[in-house]
Amino acid sequence: MSDQHHAIEFQHVSRTFGHGKNRIYAVQDVSFTISPGRVLCLVGESGCGKSTTGKMVAGLLKPSGGRILYGGRDVATLSDAETKYFRRTVQIIHQDPYASLNPVRSVRQTLSAPLLRHKMVKNRLELNNRLHDLLMQVSLTPPSDFLEKYPHQLSGGQRQRVAIARALTVQPEFIVADEAVSSVDVSLRASLLNILLDLQHRLGVTFLMITHDLAVAKYFGWNGQIGVMYLGRMVELADTVKVLGDPVHPYTRALISSLPEADPDKTRTKERLELRSPDIPSLLRVPPGCSFHPRCPLYEEGLCDVQVPPLDVYSSDGHKAACWVMARELQQPRARDRIGEQGVEERAI
Amino acid sequence: MAVAASAPTRALGIVGGVLVWCGTTIRIMARNKAGFIGFIIVAVMTIEAFIAPIFINFNTAADVNAIYQGPSLHHLLGTDSEGRDVFTQILVGGQDILEVGYLASAFGTFLAILLGILSAYAGGWLDTFLTWVADVFLTLPTFAIYAVIAGTVHLNSNVALAILIAVFSWAGLMRAIRSQVLSLRERDFIEAARALDLSLPHIIFKELAPNMAPYIAIHFVIGITAAMYAEVGLLLLGIVPLSGQNWGVMLNFAWTRGAIFYSGSLSYILSPMAVIVIFQLALIVWTRSLSEVFDPRLRRGA
Description:
The structure holds 2 protein chains of 2 kinds. Chain A is an alpha/beta fold. Chain A has 12 helices and 12 strands. By secondary structure, chain B is mostly helical. The chains are: A alpha/beta, B mainly alpha.
């Protein structure tokens, strides 16, 4: 691992699947930057392109369009050796620990393979020490109880810890956590998140946390950013505090208003944003213009269903959102003022 | 821990490792009683078949005074049309049959694994072509083709016969392996292995193959039975050269030399059939333990 961690940057990245009539845009024109040691949480409904984005970050899928920069260099132009290095520095933790561990390989086999392959240990003793370390890091103690176990002998939470330990074998600088805590019991979720947070604090690991659960994003990404995705596009991107406290995009507002609060009185009296339709459109028939317009409570005919709104900087603190209506409300007072001034000038002339 | 172990020490370590592995495997197999009995019978019969010809010098001289005798203390399973001891023939007659059975199934399984994985990983036109060839082989009337080829080509070695049988028996397993690889390679654990930059051989042989191992092993064992039947069938019909002494040749002689007309020759006719059936049955029963050896999820206890 190099001493210097690198930023990962997406520039207008798209990814399509299928051909001709069945072509879908899983991810379309997505741009963001994750600085070393930071956290970006991607939230959105299923099918919004979060996981596809995560797989592209991890180098497991190639983008169909746009560029992915790693430390300022386009990953498509990296040499074979550099690509391998890049791939190794970015690790992925999958959602389903029942599918992400090979059922016929013991914990020891699963964790040893990458250590031996990349010559990260010199001999058996070092290997054993490292295996113990790894299991301690994910709180599987005592390690000797777990090394010879097969996945089917472990609980869901324990499996997910093994999956995290496996990602740590190669000392990654970047971890893509694809719904990594969604499939475990709520009681275990916090402990898993704490393990990941600890890695972020202690080792400076950069995180892309993919989740459909805003509560997870709130807990894990409090000091980072949240990107809200909808039907393959990024519709809002800002600091976590901003997105949760002062959401701009109507979709984000709907998501947040549906979030239950710890205080039942608060939840009951909370203002709910009613969507015009509860159904997500099919990716095969993405609505024209802003893809959210068939469900959007702020929908205006002729404005929202014509052109795709760009992800524009909405306020001076870098809060980005893609919404025609909100952009107009922001700019209109100024625009009106300008018209007013011009009118005065014209009259004066 | 010694960092630089000397060569003999390392060799000892490897031998020890193999012994431990064998011990563990046998212990796992012992958990399934029926399967373990099958394994013991297969092991004993195989060892016997390959060792017996070294120690037993089968006397081919005819004894006209002892034709078609029933079982007796002197001739445990009676005598054949030339008055020779049947029990001795059973003991030494297994080698050819088992050799062809094991070899044919090994060749066929190897071919199926190779082509199945290649087809799934290559994709495109190669996949289409290989799948098409497999389909053609699946529809061929195999035994008729064995008969025709064996009748035209002089197959005087066990290896040649094994190759002939293997060439026509890989298609089914190949199709199964191809589809299993296609399904397995999309699993998350393979994606994780790719992200960890593990090598392609590692992914194929350490991650994918063990998941298919129970299926392949069972197919291999059943392949042995199929190859043995094919060979015995060809020998019975007299299509391949009747060289040496084996269970198939015995059946052929019993049939062509009219053994069915003598009451005393019953044991002569039944003996080769019985050993073949016992061996086949043991193989099939053995497969019950095999799945436990290769799939840790099926192992009972710790």
